[in-house]
Design goal:
- The complex is a heterodimer of chains A (about 400) and B (about 250).
- Chain A is an alpha/beta fold and about 400 residues long.
- Chain A has a domain of about 55 residues.
- Chain A is about 20% helix and about 40% strand.
- The two termini of chain B are about 25 Å apart.
- In chain B, the strands form 3 sheets. Chain B has a 6-stranded mixed sheet, with helices on both faces. Chain B has a 4-stranded antiparallel sheet with strand order 2-1-4-5.
- Chain B has a single domain, classed as P-loop containing nucleotide triphosphate hydrolases (Rossmann fold), CATH 3.40.50.300.
- Chain B is of the alpha/beta class.
- Chain B is globular.
- In chain B, helix 4 crosses helix 6 and helix 6 packs parallel to helix 7.
- Chain B is about 40% helix and about 30% strand.
- Chain B is built from 9 helices and 12 strands.
């Protein structure tokens, strides 16, 4: 049994370790517990977590936080005809047959974590606390028309969840992951994609937590030759949210396209962090992040492109833009390039600003009131992240959600 | 119709308009001419309601109603239209959607019914033809990638579509070729009406070859220093602004 080495564990950390010790752990889980016992929850003194201090926001024991399963609104994706897997407080449920070419199963632990997830403190935590892993398998050559919707709902307490997705060669699949929450909770999930040669994955993320919720979601992607991983995420935040992507473009000519937007109000905090490792020749990455921040909201972006020595002809571009809609909102960006190859095109750009007074006046001079003019410009700013999505119905869903936020403020 | 009395306006703490008075009766076109820095654009922005242009003294009324107490969008609904010298590009906002939203916002403020999508489409295509903007241009994000001349055509399209009561044209002629100037003249002349007024702000005589003004005013150092008939514009073209700057 692993020994807790943390000098001053918080009540929450002590509870996590005690709960894990009480379970029957596999050797791999015991190793994960040992790793977690040494580090505890990520905190601000660790560079990668300096703006998103999970430990400080999870001091109290959450075991008494009751589940509130009955107050979740229907999914905004309800009209898409997607195959839905609901994960309520960590317990997965679905009905009916999976679409042709897809198999879905629950396995007790689901094998060790993938390379990209294995050194992540919260992925280890999810792994050692997960009773069942949802394993999705897309058969080689399958073109799955019906999107798969993984609907995560957190209603109280500490919830850990793991999904693995194996995408066979030359197949095509769309996976939507929604994260909703009510009340006080810690939702910690890890989704691991293994994308074989020539396959194409469209991942869509919609996150909307509660003002008391803490959410962390890691997506680890191993992409092989000529595969494509496209991700579009819309975040409405929670007390603390971190949506993290670790992507390894391990085969030649693999492509990653990451687009995201955070729209935050009140005291909400959302952190979009990514690292994309270009490990083979000719890989392409496009990344765009936008945030619109009201009140005292806090938007964080950390993005890193790593280009290995042999990854010549890498073409990678990152752009991050924040719109401050109040004097008290904060945007913090850390774009990074780490390049070891000498024949690459890599670029990053970062901007933080307010709405343009001249544009606002122009719009108001045409008859729109101040609130409508601001909403129009904000919607246009955020909307760039959702231009020309491959599923028009999903694009409309995202745009509707933006419009609703602009109208209602949440 | 439009009456400006002793208007003082400061921008960033600097007084730009220093007691400007002017009256444009309904049905008339008045030209305001002046050198760079005389306050022409300040006048146009102030009339349209730009908030960071501080009116420190004076009155502006339209048909007896105090304009200065109205927000920019309320002035638009009352029928005040400013054709911008440098029209904005608005990335991410579809042109037709924007103009329809604007038209319906004006109508809603006036308590009128909204224009349906079908009626609007017919209307904007008709006005697009009038000003020389193709359907393809109207489908783009607002003014994005447009030339200076195309942006002015977009201003004229909105003018023709909104049918405002009082029109302020801020150096609409700048950056225009002869054909576009002619188009501007045609749009304005087609809208001249007994219940509509125009204030045409320009540096040069050339726009006034297409839009015949009833009166010409010379603006220098923040106030009107001379007013006269159309012949005043021709005189300016010959003698320049020097004498008026010195007199101001």
């Amino acid at each position: 049994m692993a020994k807790a080495l943390l000098l001053n564990p918080t009540a929450f950390e002590a509870g996590l370790v005690a709960a894990a010790r009480a379970r029957a752990l596999s050797p791999a889980q015991s190793a994960a517990l040992e790793a977690f016992s040494k580090t505890g929850l990520p905190h601000r003194r660790i560079e990668a977590w300096k703006w998103t201090d999970i430990r400080a926001n999870l001091r109290d024991d959450l075991s008494s936080a009751s589940a509130a399963n009955d107050v979740i609104a229907p999914s905004i994706f309800g009209g898409l005809g997607a195959f839905e897997i609901t994960i309520m407080n960590g317990a997965a449920e679905w009905s009916g047959e999976a679409p042709a070419g897809v198999t879905i199963s629950c396995t007790p632990q689901g094998g060790p974590l993938s390379e990209l997830a294995s050194n992540h403190p919260l992925a280890n935590l999810a792994f050692l606390n997960t009773d069942e892993t949802i394993a999705i398998n897309v058969a080689e050559g399958a073109s799955v028309e019906k999107p798969l919707l993984i609907r995560r709902i957190a209603g109280g307490g500490a919830i850990h969840q793991r999904v693995t997705v194996k995408v066979g060669a030359c197949s095509k699949v769309t996976i939507i992951e929604s994260f909703d929450g009510v009340g006080r909770y810690f939702s910690n999930s890890v989704t691991e994609f293994s994308i074989e040669s020539g396959a194409s994955v469209e991942r869509l993320v919609l996150q909307n937590g509660s003002d008391d919720g803490v959410e962390t979601a890691l997506c680890a992607v191993a992409a092989e030759t000529m595969s494509k991983f496209h991700q579009t995420a819309l975040l409405l935040g929670a007390r603390i949210v971190r949506i993290e992507s670790r992507i390894a473009l391990g085969g030649e000519d693999a492509q990653a396209d990451l687009r995201s937007a955070s729209m935050l109000c009140g005291m909400r905090h959302a952190d979009v962090t990514s690292q994309i490792d270009h490990r083979a020749k000719g890989c392409t990455t496009r990344q765009l992040h936008k945030s619109a921040l009201k009140d005292k909201a806090d938007g964080v972006f950390q993005g890193k492109f790593l280009v290995a020595r042999g990854a010549q002809k890498t073409d990678a571009r990152m752009s991050v833009n924040a719109l401050l809609l109040s004097d008290f909102a904060e945007a913090r960006h850390k774009p990074e390039l780490e390049i070891y190859a000498d024949d690459v095109e890599c670029a990053h750009g970062s901007t933080v600003g307010a709405l343009d007074d001249a544009a606002l006046f122009y719009i108001k001079s045409r008859g729109l009131d101040d609130a409508a003019a601001r909403a129009l410009l904000t919607e246009a700013f955020l909307g760039e992240a959702f231009d020309a999505m491959p599923h028009p119905a999903i694009e409309r869903t995202f745009r509707t959600r933006i419009a609703r936020w602009l109208e209602a403020g949440k | 119709m439009l009456k400006i009395e002793d208007l003082h306006v400061a921008v960033g703490g600097h007084e730009i308009l220093k007691g400007l008075s002017l009256e444009v009766p309904a049905g008339e076109v008045h030209a305001v001419m002046g050198p760079n820095g005389s306050g022409k654009s300040t006048l146009s922005f102030t009339l349209a309601g730009r908030e960071d242009y501080e009116v420190t003294a004076g009155d502006v009324t339209l048909e007896g109603e105090n304009l200065l107490q109205l927000a920019a969008n309320e002035r638009a609904a009352k029928g005040v239209f400013l054709s911008f010298q440098n029209p904005m590009e608005i990335p991410g906002v579809a042109t037709m959607n924007f103009i329809r939203t604007a038209l319906n916002a004006q109508r809603k403020t006036r308590g009128e019914e909204e224009v349906s999508a079908a009626d609007f489409l017919k209307l904007i295509r008709e006005k697009g033809k009038l000003v020389g903007l193709s359907d393809e241009k109207l489908k783009r994000p607002f003014n994005v990638g447009f030339s200076g001349g195309e942006k002015k055509r977009m201003e004229m399209l909105q003018l023709a579509l909104f049918q405002p009561r009082f029109v302020i044209m801020d150096e609409t002629d700048s950056g225009l070729d002869i054909d576009a100037l002619k188009m501007v003249g045609e749009v304005v002349n087609s809208l001249r009406a007994p219940d509509r007024g125009f204030l045409v702000i320009t540096h040069y005589q050339r726009l006034l070859d297409y839009i015949k003004p009833d009166r010409v005013h010379i603006l220098a150092a923040g106030r009107i220093v001379k007013s006269g008939g159309p012949e005043l514009a021709a005189e300016l073209e010959k003698s320049g602004y020097d004498q008026f700057i010195k007199a101001a």
